Amino acid sequence: MENLLEIHDLHAGIEGKEILHGINLTIKPGEIHAVMGPNGAGKSTLSAVLAGRPDYTVTSGSITFAGQDLLAMSPEERSWTGLFLSFQYPIEIPGVSITNFMKAAVNARRKARGELELSAGQFLKLLKEKMAFVGMKGEFAKREVNVGFSGGEKKRNEIFQMAMLDPLFSILDETDSGLDVDALKVVADGVNALRSPEKSAIIITHYKHLLDLITPDVVHVLKAGRIIATGGMELAGQIETEGFESING
């Protein structure tokens, strides 16, 4: 597989308003791409379209993921194929424990791939391993998903979910928003630990801080629904010192 993700001339929006005006983006296996841009640039719209949120409409263009037509897949099918979205604002799920939530998610994905479900012992071993990896205390496994969590705890839980599912392609939609230094390192360590020649990611962010810890292969600048510049970390450095207005395209 030459390319893991191919976006061609993507036009999309919400409630009849077009927000993305012709996105072209190609990501190879093993690559981490950063998408930076000011508020309203279309960054979260891009992540929502990739994840398959039904309130967003694609009016033209195509997205191919792992050799398949992504736009023809339901959100569940996208997840089963190996796509993961870390939300900017993780939702609370009252009445559902983290343990039960993750067991359902892991086994649903295994079933979709024709694999046997994990036994209780196998799942517990995996759960403890990944919780230790992200520095989550054992008591968190019994808590309701994100209920009463601080902002940092919610983001840590997102990285825990990513570690449990071990996705082929991860989308981190402003996961660094509002994080302190320690929580930021947890996010970066999680992304770096899952980095491999087969797995890729998009990191959507306003800021350079997270990129300093991860070092993406490619940096894109998204502005007014279009990618106006592509380069390396020098682009992120220019934005940090001179702002988005300094990037022309």
Structure commentary:
Strand 4 and strand 5 form a beta hairpin. This protein has a six-stranded mixed beta sheet with strand order 6-9-10-3-11-12, with helices on both faces. Strands 2-1-4-5 form a four-stranded antiparallel beta sheet. A two-stranded antiparallel sheet has the order 7-8. It has helices spanning about 45-50, 75-80, 100-110, 120-135, 150-165, 180-195, 210-215, 235-240; strands at about 5-15, 15-25, 30-35, 55-65, 70, 85, 95, 145, 170-175, 200-205, 220-225, 225-230. The mean pLDDT is about 90. Helix 5 runs parallel beside helix 6 (about 180-195). With about 250 residues, the protein is an alpha/beta fold.
Quick synopsis:
The chain is α/β, with parallel strands linked by helices. It has 8 helices and 12 strands. Helices cover 36% and strands 29% of the residues.
Radius of gyration: 18 Å
Given the structure, what is the number of helices? 8
Q: Give the overall form.
A: globular
Q: Report strand order across the widest sheet.
A: 6-9-10-3-11-12
User: Which class of secondary structure composition applies to the elements?
Assistant: alpha/beta
Distance between the termini: 31 Å
Query: Which ranges are low-confidence, i.e. pLDDT below 50, for 5 or more consecutive residues?
Result: none
Topology:
Elements: E1 5-14, E2 17-27, E3 32-36, H1 43-51, E4 56-65, E5 68-69, H2 75-81, E6 83-86, E7 93-97, H3 98-112, H4 120-133, E8 144-145, H5 151-165, E9 169-173, H6 181-193, E10 200-205, H7 209-214, E11 218-223, E12 226-231, H8 233-242
Parallel strand pairs: 3-10, 3-11, 6-9, 9-10
Antiparallel strand pairs: 1-2, 1-4, 4-5, 7-8, 11-12
Helix pairs in contact: 2-3, 5-6
